[in-house]
Amino acid sequence: MRRVLLSTLVAALPAVAMAADAERVVEARKGFFSLVALEFGPLAAMAKGEMPYDADAAKAHAADLVALTKYDPSDLYAPGTSADDVKGTGAKAAIWQDMDTYQKKGMAFFEAVAALEPVAGNGQKELGAAVNKVGATCKSCHDDFRAKN
Ligand code: HEC
């Protein structure tokens, strides 16, 4: 009896550890997109004229976005961390079912950010056009792969 209890306990341990890891991955993934949104927000506001255009600030936000695209995000997509597996995430299981498409959408985002950086300091008009292209890549990915969490 004692033996059975012990082995059940031991068998349950890795599951608990994995659940904790999954939550950590979700927190990190949301943190990553929070950083993306923090840097993109002022650029979008400047593009729309909701915030005065400031070339230096625009360049700095664009450079931070580029820095974020250099981060290898594979750890953020550990298996078992979709909205079907854990609470508190908006990452649809579709990401893991169609990682190719997800990565393509990620690449489109990277490319749009790379195109934004050199023109961010060139005035509101040029910034605006590049910001719209980046914004379209956010939306395109969210439409297919992000659920409300
Ligand atoms: C390749 C796909 C993809 C692209 C591109 C993308 N996102 Fe997301 N985004 C996601 C996914 C998936 C989530 C859900 C993450 C989670 O809840 O685990 C998310 C979550 C978010 C969140 C919520 C974070 C939180 O704290 O819950 C914000 C804000 C966000 N994205 C903003 C943006 C902005 C702004 C852009 C473009 C500048 C962008 N995203 C581009 C896939 C993408």
Automatic annotation (TrEMBL):
Keyword Heme: yes
Alphabetized GO MF terms: electron transfer activity; heme binding; iron ion binding
KW Electron transport (keyword) present: yes
Any one cellular-component term (Gene Ontology): periplasmic space
Domain of life: Bacteria
Any one GO biological process: electron transport chain
Coiled-coil portions: none
Listed PROSITE patterns: CYTCII (PS51009)
Name listed for the protein in its UniProt record: Cytochrome c556
